[in-house]
């Protein structure tokens, strides 16, 4: 908060109950020009207007959970030459309680030297930080390394700062955060990056696990191959062209396509709305109203719309969807703001009910979701894409992007991935036969036990 040249201002906290005023306690409370906290459940307890110390207007708040303890939160506006017209808040809580502080968001006017606090006060829960209160802070004194239970809130500090910037930051900051989230490698602070694992490795692990159940090697290979193909988008193993290998129409039922076409997502894509995903906007501008590669304009709009929905699910609901609106598909559709037919056909392909109002996305489903996104990107880019661009869009590192491309049957060379690039599969004189999708998919191998 901006410094005040006139120094701190002393404010007496007054308790207001049922219109009657009373002293808050025997000890005076100092309200320095600092930002303290409004709890999430604070409610107005009264209003006091005092003409002392340069003119102080005070709004007092009390926490519903602490009324018996006489815990109050003060919103004061210091007028006149001493206060500099700065608004600030403080509380009557003892600093030794070690409570986490939720900063109030405000807008500072440098010309008038006033700070306008955000209203309503529940916006204070956007950010959540632990404040060090000096060398005498009981939580950091030598010999005491434990953390107060009150200091461990519902928000992770780093993620809270991201949320704060996403909510109130400039467009430039928001774009920078989004870019970093898409390109960073998986770590504990990632917002939506998933487990780094390929379908091939996962399928091989399943095959190895089945060996303990006494299955033959042939059965293990069959099971692993089936597991790998189950997570691929709808495909035709005998197809010899990319368009036939992963047909767009087969990704959804006709009923789900109709519901998607009637949704706001589709209208936004058709109109090129600024609310669309950044890639969708860029791709629409590049195509200038036409189709992508072999696709018509209608097919391109469908692919872009489906891509936007899946990418939103991938980023926003990486492991589970918790629906507080109730149980059932209807409540889930209402929460996601998607047509129910689309939820039935698309969302439930990746998210399975695991309890009342909880829909979980398993590891194999997360891999499948990324493969669906990769196929749509390949379609929109004419079945040839830079792996760096693929990695950025999926929020994975470059190596995983290449692995995902190979899982789909792409030929990866350098920084490029191409789907169903024609090659000779067999020769008979001058005749050549185009390789089908099945021959291009990676083969599952079983790990042999070492001889001792």
Describe this structure in words.
This protein is an alpha+beta fold. It folds into 2 domains: 141 residues, no CATH class; 199 residues, no CATH class. Helix content is 37%, strand content 18%. Helix 4 packs antiparallel against helix 5, helix 7 packs across helix 12 and helix 14 packs across helix 15. The N and C termini lie far apart (69 Å).
Summarize the structure.
By secondary structure, the chain is of the alpha+beta class.
Topology, element by element:
Elements: E1 9-10, E2 14-17, E3 20-23, E4 30-31, E5 42-50, E6 56-63, E7 72-78, H1 80-83, E8 86-91, E9 106-109, E10 114-117, H2 157-168, H3 171-183, H4 199-211, H5 217-230, H6 242-245, H7 254-261, H8 264-271, H9 278-287, H10 297-316, E11 320-322, H11 329-336, H12 340-350, E12 352-355, E13 358-360, H13 363-380, E14 384-386, H14 387-394, H15 398-407, E15 410-413, E16 416-419, E17 424-428, E18 431-434, H16 437-440
Antiparallel strand pairs: 1-4, 2-3, 5-6, 6-7, 7-8, 9-10, 11-13, 12-13, 14-16, 15-16, 17-18
- Could you say how many structural domains there are in total? 2
Strand content: 15-25%
Please state the average pLDDT score.
Answer: 67
Shape: globular
Termini Cα gap:
69 Å
Number of helices: 16
Outline the biggest β-sheet.
4 strands, antiparallel
Radius of gyration: 30 Å
Helix/strand structural class: alpha+beta
Keywords: DNA-directed RNA polymerase, Nucleus, Transcription
Family: Belongs to the eukaryotic RPA49/POLR1E RNA polymerase subunit family.
Pfam families: RNA_pol_I_A49 (PF06870)
Protein name: Subunit RPA49 of DNA-directed RNA polymerase I
């Amino acid at each position: 908060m901006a410094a005040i040249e006139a120094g701190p201002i002393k404010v007496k906290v007054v308790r207001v109950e049922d219109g009657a005023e009373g002293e808050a306690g025997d000890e005076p409370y100092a309200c320095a020009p600092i930002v303290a906290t409004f709890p999430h459940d604070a409610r107005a307890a009264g209003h006091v207007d005092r003409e002392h110390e340069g003119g102080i207007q005070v709004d007092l708040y009390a926490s519903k959970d602490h009324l018996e303890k006489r815990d109050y939160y003060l919103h004061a506006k210091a007028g006149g030459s001493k206060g500099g017209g700065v608004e600030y808040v403080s509380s009557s809580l003892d600093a030794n309680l070690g409570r986490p502080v939720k900063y109030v968001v405000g807008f500072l006017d440098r010309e008038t030297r006033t700070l306008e606090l955000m209203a309503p006060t529940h916006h204070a829960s956007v950010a959540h930080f632990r404040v060090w209160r000096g060398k005498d802070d009981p939580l950091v004194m030598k010999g005491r390394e434990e953390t107060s239970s009150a200091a461990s809130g519902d928000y992770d500090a780093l993620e809270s700062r991201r949320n704060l910037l996403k909510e109130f930051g400039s467009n430039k900051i928001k774009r920078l955060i989004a870019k970093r989230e898409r390109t960073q490698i998986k770590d504990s602070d990632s917002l939506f990056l998933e487990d780094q694992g390929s379908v091939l490795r996962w399928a091989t692990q399943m095959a190895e696990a089945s060996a303990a159940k006494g299955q033959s090697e042939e059965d293990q290979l069959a099971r692993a191959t089936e597991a790998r193909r189950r997570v691929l988008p709808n495909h035709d193993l005998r197809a010899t062209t990319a368009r036939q290998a992963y047909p767009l129409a087969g990704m959804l039922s006709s009923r789900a396509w109709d519901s998607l076409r009637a949704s706001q997502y589709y209208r936004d894509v058709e109109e090129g709305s600024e609310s669309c995903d950044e890639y969708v906007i860029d791709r629409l501008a590049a195509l200038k109203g036409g189709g992508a590669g072999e696709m018509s304009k209608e097919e391109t709009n469908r692919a872009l719309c489906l891509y936007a929905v899946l990418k939103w699910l991938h980023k926003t609901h990486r492991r589970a969807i918790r629906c507080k609106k109730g149980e059932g598909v209807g409540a889930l559709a209402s929460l996601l703001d998607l047509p129910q037919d689309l939820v039935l056909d698309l969302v439930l392909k990746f998210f399975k009910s695991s309890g009342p109002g909880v829909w979980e996305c398993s590891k194999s489903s997360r891999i499948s979701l990324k493969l669906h996104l990769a196929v749509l990107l390949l379609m929109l880019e004419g079945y040839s894409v830079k792996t760096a661009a693929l990695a950025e869009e999926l929020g994975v590192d470059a190596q995983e992007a290449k692995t995902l491309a190979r899982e789909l049957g792409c030929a990866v060379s350098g920084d490029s991935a191409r789907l169903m690039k024609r090659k000779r599969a067999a020769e008979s004189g001058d005749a050549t036969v185009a390789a089908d999708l099945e021959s291009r998919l990676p083969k599952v191998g079983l790990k042999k036990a070492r001889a001792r």
